[in-house]
What we know:
The chain is of the alpha+beta class. It is built from three helices and 13 strands; from the N terminus they run ααβββββββββββββα. It folds into two domains: 66 residues; 155 residues, Thrombin, subunit H (Beta Barrel). The chain starts with a helix and ends in a 13-residue tail after the last helix. The C terminus is likely disordered.
Amino acid sequence: MVMDHRQQHMETVRGVLTTAIYPIQYLINLPAGVGEWPTESLATRQTLIEQNNSLRAQQFLFNIQLQKLDALAAENMRLRALLDSSINVRDRVLIAELLSVDMKPFTQQVVISKGSHHDVYRGQPILDASGILGQVVHVSPLNSTAMLITDPSHALPVQVNRNGQRAIAMGTGDSNRLELPHLPNNADIEVGDLLVTSGLGGRFPPGYPAARVTVVIRNPGQPFAEVQAEPTGRLESAREVLLVWNNPPEVEKVEEQTAAEAEASIAPEDENGEQTP
Length: 277
């Protein structure tokens, strides 16, 4: 034993004996191993199923969160575009969200999330980053209804940005088409011309993109040309709109009151043409 401890002469013998005894140990442990194998297999399979279901649920939640992040990124881009538009406006502006769209045929109206509590007034123009969308036609305390420029009952004073040719853009009920009636055949208007608001009537501020000419048909037998245009604003895909304070009712009332006071300050004349005190 001392020699084996110091010089390990029996190491080879032990290795041979261990190899020879291993089958006997395996046969002795086989019944216990066979009995535990189904339990371990079933437990392992159940664990894998639970882990698989858990991972599927996590993947589903992550996909939903990813879609939400994509939606937030798109919304961020739209808001940035609106903010750039508001910088160009240089007036008081307010961003509002679209709440609903009127589904009636040939009616182009939407409901926005701002109302009289936010100083929204009837006739207030709305636009997006690409151009004019319409105007407010009904105001309630918390929301408002706006008519789009493509509504059949809407008319928008415009002019050709290239030469200043004035016209009226009429809605057709089609979100991609406006008509410009009563333009003579010799009017200087061509396909591709940009139409901007002229500011006539005082409802819409001048110089905002409204539409781009798509069709010009001149029939010598007709007094007027057939002109159609496509709105520049994203009428069907806009989620946020920009409210512009162009000429609110308070300003109009002040101007009318000032004009009335100025007329009242002029003393009436008598029959001889002299002013009476």
